[in-house]
Write a structure and sequence with these properties.
By secondary structure, the protein is of the alpha+beta class. It is built from 6 helices and 11 strands. Helix 3 crosses helix 4.
Length: about 240
């Protein structure tokens, strides 16, 4: 990983969802030479440069990127809410949520990856598709950085989520529900469990990234989240 302009450029393996430049521009406009180096590093690996730029960034920065050949691919919404008060755990009928320890990792991984391969169609769709092996590798790479949660429906694995805690911020890093188990309250239960644990851990703020208009955005807003900013996902053309 390489820091750049308040963000970080990361690369994991060919075609990985972890190949991106996250938070670009939070520290102001990057030095052109630094951006040259990042672009060169991705080109050497045969991968496109995909920066994520917040709507709070300097507009002149976006003009600079357009001049370098970047084009818009999609949007994502970043939501946030304050923590501190008690958080009610949601327990729909037949649904349980438990921490996923190392012994349950493969079960958690299988249900999360399988669900990710069949995304929900409500709202703006994800434009990127990844092979199972690449998704599994990405989850394994991130496993040491997050707390994992396994949801069960009537005792059977039905979904999973994760959360990263750092400097008083709880980053809800993903959740997925098996297609056959959707619309049963599993996403809400996973969300509530993570918020309760983040509050117990002393976090002040929780953040989550969702597709605009998605079921995940609806669930988060029902749990007190508000829009912080929209980020543009760009890619370098030619």
């Amino acid at each position: 990983m390489t820091p750049i302009a308040g963000g970080v450029a990361s690369y994991a393996e060919p075609d990985s969802p972890l190949n991106k430049v996250a938070g670009l521009g939070f520290g102001g406009r990057p030095d052109p030479a630094a951006l040259d180096a990042v672009e060169s590093a991705f080109a050497d690996r045969g991968q496109p440069v995909q920066p994520e730029v917040a709507s709070l960034a300097d507009p002149e920065f976006l003009e600079m990127l357009a001049g370098r050949g970047y084009r818009l691919v999609s949007f994502e919404n970043v939501l946030g809410r304050a923590l501190g008060g008690p958080v009610e755990r949601v327990t729909p009928p037949g649904v349980t949520v438990e921490p996923s320890d190392d012994a349950a990792f493969e079960t958690w991984l299988d249900v999360v990856v399988e669900a990710s391969l069949t995304p929900d169609t409500q709202g703006v769709p994800w434009l990127e598709e990844f092979p199972r092996e690449v998704l599994e590798n990405a989850e394994r790479d991130a496993a040491a950085l997050v707390r994992r949660y396994l949801a069960r429906l009537d005792g059977e694995p039905a979904g999973g989520g994760s959360m990263r805690l750092a400097d008083g911020i709880a980053q809800l890093t993903g959740a997925a529900t098996a297609p056959a188990c959707r619309r049963r309250g599993i996403q809400s239960a996973l969300l509530a469990a993570r918020l309760a644990d983040a509050t117990a851990a002393g976090c002040d703020v929780a953040v989550i990234t969702v597709q605009p208009g998605s079921r995940s955005q609806e669930n988060a807003q029902r749990r007190g989240f508000d829009l912080l900013y929209t980020r543009a996902v760009l890619t370098l053309v030619g």
